[in-house]
Each structure stands twice: as structure tokens, then as C-alpha cells.
Amino acid sequence: MTLTSAPAAAALTSARRLDEQDELARFRRQFVIEDTDLIYLDGNSLGRLPKRTAQHMRQAVEREWGGRLIRGWNEGWFTAPQRVGAKIARLIGAEADEVIAADSTSVNLFKLIVAALRARPGRHKIVTDGLNFPSDLYVAQGALQLAGPHHRLEVVASADGLTPPGDLAEAMDGDTALVMLTHTAFKSGWVYDMAGITAAAHRQGALMLWDLSHSAGAMPLALDECGVDLAAGCTYKYLNGGPGAPAFLFVRRDLQDTLLNPIWGWFGQTAQFDMLPDYQPGPGMLRWMVGTPNVLSLAAVEPALDLALEAGVDRVRAKSVRQTEYLIELWRAWLEPLGVGLNSPREASRRGSHVSLGHPEAWRIVQALIEEMRVIPDFRSPDNIRLSIAPLYTSFADIHEAMARLRQVIVERRYENYPSERFEVT
Amino acid sequence: MTLTSAPAAAALTSARRLDEQDELARFRRQFVIEDTDLIYLDGNSLGRLPKRTAQHMRQAVEREWGGRLIRGWNEGWFTAPQRVGAKIARLIGAEADEVIAADSTSVNLFKLIVAALRARPGRHKIVTDGLNFPSDLYVAQGALQLAGPHHRLEVVASADGLTPPGDLAEAMDGDTALVMLTHTAFKSGWVYDMAGITAAAHRQGALMLWDLSHSAGAMPLALDECGVDLAAGCTYKYLNGGPGAPAFLFVRRDLQDTLLNPIWGWFGQTAQFDMLPDYQPGPGMLRWMVGTPNVLSLAAVEPALDLALEAGVDRVRAKSVRQTEYLIELWRAWLEPLGVGLNSPREASRRGSHVSLGHPEAWRIVQALIEEMRVIPDFRSPDNIRLSIAPLYTSFADIHEAMARLRQVIVERRYENYPSERFEVT
After folding, report:
1. Which ipTM score applies to this complex?
2. Three-state DSSP class for A259?
């Protein structure tokens, strides 16, 4: 399929030049990309499969499980949550013994939120804002309901749904047990000031919890340097860990022995195989584990982390900024004149690794892109065409071609063939 | 290696004859068994890899994730927890819409225990017994700690550590919110009277929760017929779902709309993609889900369930009983005279699919079996040599040979070469 229009073709030369100059270009060849005409800009929902992961999974299933059977536990499985956690730690500015990989993001948020509320007795409030994942709000609502009738969630509204509320710090007070935010907003891609907000929470004696799902692997983070207390995030977006991969969980070292995971399981117990009748929470991050680790899913995560560490998260971020800038340049030249808005920050330092373009027909445009233009972005209500850049495998040519096809959909009003009612995923 | 001694060789003929008459014998060829001299009797810790799972995992990783990317969610991933749950339901005597596969056994127990305590306000007690998994007790202790200072766990002691306490029903009273037990005891293999104990709990107005980890896939169960309220269990033992595979969770249909999962996540929400700000628990079993389902691990579970369904759980149980009887016959002939005890019930109807043999040097004997005799059983304190029979792949010849090698270890006192201190798994 060649959809590139004549004027767009001129700009293609510059995209190709940028790819030639890209020091991370070789990493694209490390991923399974069979359908080369398909432009995948949804790596912030599900990252691509690294070739080495495919190989490693055959090994994990066929040689380790099939061949070693129960002996696998002593040959690397037991330590997988810590080993994977230590690699994630290097990507997020934490120490190796501050991170484990286990359970889902939501379950990990539940553990951390309940623990935080119990660590701040007499305080009743969790502060968050309207840019947070609804899912994170649900977990907080459930945890608050367990905590008692006077506990409550304060969701500070965003004026435009794209940028954080200016008065977030004003909502933090002496009754605030916890401030929880998502570091990169899933709609606009807004990146918060981690150090500043964490400090504001601390000034009120509250704990600070960051959801790093849209940040980990896309940009350098400095959890320890920022004094962050708690964090969690998923590994299936920019960390390329596979669909529904285990999540991670961070607890600042000097809080590890005072906070208590509310879900007491045998993998979080001090002396697991003594099978003592009473739970004794393990030291360090061990206590944040619950049940038997999901070995096969952890095996899928690990090779992708090695790839990210090889590339270096600083270089990934530098390329991500160049690529979102490039995308925004094309938007300005081709799409702004057609009435498409920019829902992501223009300032690179405040922007994550995706760009959301706004259009009243965003939902139908996304359908047209997927169904007939061989571009996969995603839609986020009310009007976001969300275009994700995963610098390990997204090329400048991908961005160029996707923007050209998007332009064509809008110019030719191809989206009019699609229903405007959103259908539920079945 | 030929370790079969002369007298044992005579009995081998009868083992081979039993294998020839075994209607399930062909299922053994459905599993990856490369090391044919190794006798694996630890299928109740980690089941073997079905050949079709190896194939299916390549498909799930390479074709579905690698090739379909985010589109996989609409092509089977979303419904995997329900689809896998419905297959497990057929194995445990439940309806398709009463079971989902998600999270770990411990996380599922936590959800169910907290929900049960909240469904019985004013009642403060959970009743269990000393044969339950320590891990299950930990989860209950954690849940009770959240519930309040007057809540407590009553662990009715077993007189011998092998059989359940006779006065279990006496511990159930008007203050009992929940009775929780493991259906097949992990040390002795004792199988409880599910109908009788469930009825006793109900007579006191308590809810009944069964851990089916050592039962599911090994014997027919009749959760609905027995009026069971709640159940959970793992899929990596007799269900052959792989190391740390997702667990399952059962809630009786008429309780589904009244009980509430305390961990509120987006996959348990009514209209997940509407991303409404307030959590609204989904209908039926949907509300028991939390985060994004672990697609790759669910993919590993499914083919093994098909295998179990093909074999038929009644036939699996019939073979299991024949095999544990056969093992006990060999014990009586060869090992009882050497001072080895039988720690499992003699009555087949009260015995699960493993047999625990008792010996003061059990720990060293198990080490010798693994290190030099190419037999993998496992040890459970204080004196259990636990021999698991997985009828889908365990042959009578396996049992014969394992018992011959065990006899040799004891007769030749080979265990004396091994340390008596238990080392921690690293």
C-alpha cells in the first residue's frame, strides 16, 4: 500500500535522514516486525515483542518447565521477582532492593494504598487529580471503603482535562495521608514535576505514590533522588513485557520495614518453607509479595528489560523528544490547518512519549486509520487520537507515514464511513 | 540406570500389565517427557508440560502478541479469564458463570475472605483447622487484621497432624462468619467431606470457603451440589498450568451480586472502557477481576484444561485410586517391614491423589532419591515423603520403579550421606 501523497513524499526524505542519524535505529531490528506496512503507534498500550523474548519463552516453557520441572524453582524461578525488579529499578532511578515484580498494577496499588493509610492513622484523605487513570481511582475508592466511613478521596479537577490542576498542593493538608498521581497522564501525555509534588506532599506529612505505567521505559526517572515513597507500574507498555505482564512495585528503602502489605501470603513470609503457623512479614521488598510468582510471565518481561538497559533510558528519552517534536512539526504543517488540535504539551520537558491530537471525530478517524489505512493508534475520550512513540522500534519514517495517512483520512473524510457510536470491546 | 532389584523385578510384570489395561495410558504421550529414566512424583507441586501447551505458547507469544499486537485483546484475550474459568468449572462441578481465572490463589483468597467478613457483619470469627495450608492461614490473619480488633482466627488442632479434628463443627457458632478449609490436605492427602462440612457451616449461618488446590483436576468435585459458597485454587498442580500459573475463584451464583471484591480494579468494573470516575462492580464473576489479565499465563493454562476434560475427571479419579492403592500395596510388602509408616488415609474415599509415607529420616531420604536415584518426590515436615500421582502421566511402572528405588535407599541406608539440617531454598 502506498498512501503517501505527493507533498508528503517530499518530507519523507527528511524522515529517512533522521532515521539514518538515529543512534538507536538498530534496536528496531531486535523486535518482531513481520507486517512492515502496518504502522504501530500503540506501544503505550502494548509494546511489541522483542525477538529475544520469543526465544527466551521457548526456553522457559520447553526447557525449564518441560525439562527441569519442579527443580526450576531452585534454578532461577524463586528469585525472578527480585531479579526482574532490580532491572526495573535501574530504569526508574531506584536501588535494586527497592523494587519487585509481582501481581498486577491494580493489586500493587491496593497493597500500597492500604499500607499508606495504615501508616498515617488519624488522617482520612487521599488526594489525586482528574488526570489519573480511572482504574487508580477505583483502587483508592475500594481501599478507602475498607478504611472507614470518614476516609475519602479528593479528586482535584483539571480545568481542561489535559493539564494538571494548578491548585493541587492546596488540596494537601494535615488530614492527607497519601497523594497519588500518574506521572505521565494517559490522555494528554502531561509529565508531572515529580520532585516538586513529592516535596509538597511531604510538607504536609503525607506519603507520595506515583503510578509510572506511562513513564517507565520511556524516560529516565529519579525516584530516590525525588524522595518518592511509593510507586507502581505496569511492564506491558514501554517496557515491552507482553500482554498482561506482571507489574512492579517500589517502596523507598527506609519505609520498607514500617509499612505492611495487607495481603499476607507465603511468598511474603520471612521463612517461607518453615511453614510456621503465624505470618511474619519478610524483610525488605519480600513482604510485598503474596502468592507464587508467575514464572512464565516474568520470563517474558526480563529480556525486554535487558534491551531497554542496553539502549539506555537517557538515549531513549532523547530520541522520544526528537520524535514527538517531529510529529508536532508535521501536525503544525499538515493537520493544524485542517482543524486538528494538539492535546499534548508543546513543551518537551512536560510531554511524555505519546502525542494526542484532538478532533471532534477522533473516534471515527481512529477506526478509519485501523480499518483501511494500516495505522494503529488509539482513541481516548472525548476527542484524543493518541499516537505513541516507542523509540526502541518507532522510526521517523513510521511517524511520517502515519501522519500522511491521518491527513488523508481527514482530507478525504474517510472517517464518515464509520459509526460514531462507540462499540464496546467484546 | 537400572536400579530395579531382583524381587522387585517380579512385581514389575504386574505394573506393566496394569499399564496395558489403563484406559488413560495414551494421555502420557501428550506430555513432554524427555528424560524417561527420571520418575516424577511431584505433580502436586508442579504438573508436567503438555505438548500442546508448548505449541500453544509459541502461537500465543509469536503469532498473537508478536503479530496481532493490541488487536489480540479483541481476538480472545479479553475473554480468557471467563473462558478458562468455564473450563475449570466443568472440572469442579460448577456452572460456567461461577468461575474465573485470575491473580494468585492467595490474592483470590484475600478477596473472598474480606468479602465474606463484610457479608456477615457482627460476626468475628473464621474457623479453620491445623491441616490447612499455612499460606491460607496467613491470608486470613491479614484479612482479620483489617477487619478489626475483635476479629479472630480459630485454628482447630488436628490430633495427629494427618486427619482433621473430630470437633471441627463444634467450633462453628453464631459468631462464625466463615469456615475455610483445604479440601485435600497437603501433607496427608486427607479428603474432607465437602457436603457435610459445608452443611455444618450453613447451619450456623456461616459462609464456606474451600481451597481446591490439591483437588482440582485430581478428582470430581461437586461445588454446586454441595452448596459451597466460595472456593479458590491453583492451576499449576494437577491442572498442569505451568509454574505460578493464574489461580481460579468460584462464587456461588446467588451470592455473586451481594458479595463485593475489596480490590476494585478496571477489569472488575461494569463498563470498563467508559472509564467512569466511580467504580461500579460488574455483574456476576466480572467483579472478582482486578487488573489486566495475564494473557500469556492464561494461554499456558488453557490447553492443559482441554486435556483434563478429554480424559474426564471421573476416569482420572478412578485411575488415581487404583494407583494409590497399588502404591500402598507395594508399601505394605516392601516398606512397612522396614519401619516406614503410611501417613495418608487407607480408605480410598478419604485419600487424594498423593500418598505420604512417614519415616524419621524423610528429609534425607528425599534428598537421596533426588540426588542419586532419579526420583522426584517431595518432603513435607516433619516426616513425610510425599509421592504424588498425576494419572494423566504417571504410569504404574513409574510407581513400581519409584518404590523399588525408595526401598533401596532405605535398605542400603543411602540417606546417611545427606545432611539432616534442612537448607533453605535459595
Report:
1. 0.96
2. coil
C-beta of residue A415 within 8 angstroms of C-beta of residue A364: yes
How much is the pLDDT for B10?
62
Any idea what DSSP says for residue A257?
T
Q: Is A237 a catalytic residue?
A: yes
Query: From the CA of A393, how many Å to the nearest CA of chain B?
Result: 13
pLDDT digits (tens, 9 = 90+) for A151-166: 999 999 999 999 999 9
Is pLDDT above 50 for B425? no
Cβ burial, residue A372 (10 Å; 0-12/13-18/19+): middle
CA distances (Å), origin A183, targets A224, A278, A346, B236: 15, 38, 17, 36
Disruptive mutation site among B69, B153, B386, B421 for chain A (greatest number of A CBs within 10 Å): B69
Q: Is A323 helix (H, G, I), strand (E, B) or coil?
A: helix
> For strand A207-211 and strand A230-233, is the pairing parallel, antiparallel, or unpaired?
parallel
Q: Could you read off the pLDDT of A42-67 as tens digits, one per residue? A: 999 999 999 999 999 999 999 999 99
Number of H helices, E strands in chain B: 10, 13
3 state SS of B251: strand
Question: Quick one: closest CA in A to B41, which residue?
Answer: A70
CA nearest to B147 within chain A: A146
CB neighbour list of residue A424: distance below 8 Å, 6 or more residues apart: B271, B273
- Using an 8 Å Cβ cutoff, are B182 and B273 in contact? no
Contact residues, chain B, for A279 at CB < 8 Å: 137-138, 141-142
Average pLDDT score over chain A: 95
Q: Which amino acid is at B422?
A: R
Q: Rounded to whole angstroms, how far apart are CA atoms B157 and B168?
A: 9
Residue A148: left (phi > 0), alpha (psi -120 to 50), or beta? left
φ, ψ of residue B411 in degrees (nearest 5) = -60, -45
The contacts of residue B10 (CB under 8 Å, 6+ apart) are none
Q: Which domains occur in chain A, in start order?
A: 6-30+312-417 (3.90.1150.10), 54-310 (3.40.640.10)
Number of H helices, E strands in chain A: 11, 13
Q: Is the pLDDT of residue B91 over 70?
A: yes
Q: A314: which 3 cell numbers? A: 537517557
pLDDT at site B11: 74
d(CA A296, CA A300): 6
| pLDDT at site B40 | 98
Which residues of B are less than 8 Å from A246 in CB distance?
294
pLDDT confidence bin for A10, thresholds 50/70/90: low
Residue B285, judged by CB atoms within 10 A of its CB (0-12, 13-18, 19+), counts as buried
pTM: 0.96
Beta-carbon separation of B49 and A34 below 8 A: no
Pairing of strands B176-182, B207-211: parallel
pLDDT at B271: 81
Q: Does B153 touch chain A (CB under 8 A)?
A: no
